């Protein structure tokens, strides 16, 4: 037997027991007469004590232990003379009688402590050592707990976890596929699933009624910060449901997670239409931890001789409460912020509503005190507040103001990662125009159903941009953590949708024929959604990066620096696959 106990479980009540522990040497301290070794495993740290007087050879052996040696120690649990209240085992130590080195270790390239001295790259290269550190380990433990809660919650409600294939057919819609060459079918390729979308719909046709899967998905997108080429979804689908049923079911799941993981009881989540979200917050995933709602002041702002306002489709701003005392320097920093290419505004107009009731603005030349008062009233500002205003084409300006709103929220400390603001965004547009390719794309995916009352608009190409979908996202703290839709289950409507997206009948049949065929054999009304599991974990932990919640993540260039993938393959492998590689 390697051990009788773990390094995290012994307490004063165990004093007098003879135990055997096994683990890694976190650190050893040689105090002359005594040597102490902190022994670590996944469960905690227990102090081993070696006494020079009573057992000199053993004590000398202990002194020779290096960091991260794997050892086994047997001894008696005793009460410590100097207790450590910081760790649960801090009241006891093991008076070691026998010590065995199970494996030696090279000195690790960084310290395996709560706070490591290793940089990101180094820790990723030796991720197995990084995972020994408690912050990373705790993240993985939390992820496991979340996964178990999800599984149990859904299983208790008759959802079956069903695995769907990883080697599937490539489809052109959505993101770019990762492809896998087929040796047995030279010149042909599988794709790795971007999501199990079509399979879960087929499972509904198959009568499985309620499906879920905690499943890996793959998207070959240009990596933006904190995107992973492979990530995990909690993927779900239900039959014979309306939007309300789906929202209730998965709001229930989210509430359950908040309760179990964070001890927070949420009532009903807020709901907002996509259109309102864009108008009030400039985003389809508004951060609702704070207000600072947009105030449209186009009417009040125009006609004062200020050309920029006069020529703009929209003049819109936010009120930063209590910020009228912002200095020139602070205002310049905000102007620089909105002018950054990532935000792209031409400039920023400010109006200070001073505590004494006077005004100071960057448009004083055009706006006298009365006019500024009218602006303040239109924006609901009070003395002491600062108004920040942008203008330009409506949608673009809203998106720019959204960036400024979030920036102000951060500056004012209104985005506490331990505070949670979940909401549903509903009624997304069905179609999205792409300037580059001059065509409409499905905003969600081609299987999403239009709202029944908007369905007729499919016959009028001029109105395609106005069609609303029965599609919804769940948003927490400004992050989209999940999304889904009511599906089209009618073949005629699905055909129409493919036509709208520019597919010929042949193209649609070649790409989606199996799904279309299945729909002719009695497809039930169905709907579903998928949560991004990595993101959900990071938000629940109040952390920024999803990488910290993935055991072996890729870096920002999509590389696994530990294993060195992607990598070239041998000529034999290429020949077998009949693939010619011509990389310059
Ligand atoms: N398959 C969708 C996605 O990956 C989610 C859904 O509609 O269920 O975003």
Concise synopsis of the structure shown:
A hairpin with a 5-residue loop joins β14 (349-353) and β15. The chain is globular, with a radius of gyration of 30 Å.
Topology (elements, then pairings):
Blueprint lengths: L17 E13 L3 E8 L2 E8 L4 H8 L6 E10 L12 E12 L16 H6 L1 H4 L3 H23 L3 E2 L17 E3 L7 E3 L5 H9 L4 E9 L11 E10 L3 H20 L7 E4 H8 L13 E2 L1 H4 L5 H4 L3 E7 L7 H12 L9 E5 L5 E3 L7 H11 L6 E7 L1 H18 L10 E5 L4 E4 L4 E4 L28 E6 L2 E8 L4 H10 L4 H15 L6 E7 H8 L30 H7 L7
Parallel strand pairs: 3-5, 6-9, 11-17
Antiparallel strand pairs: 1-2, 1-4, 2-3, 4-5, 7-8, 9-10, 10-22, 12-13, 13-16, 14-15, 14-16, 17-20, 18-19, 20-21, 21-22
The structure holds aspartic acid (ASP).
The site of aspartic acid has 8 residues, from strand 21 and strand 22.
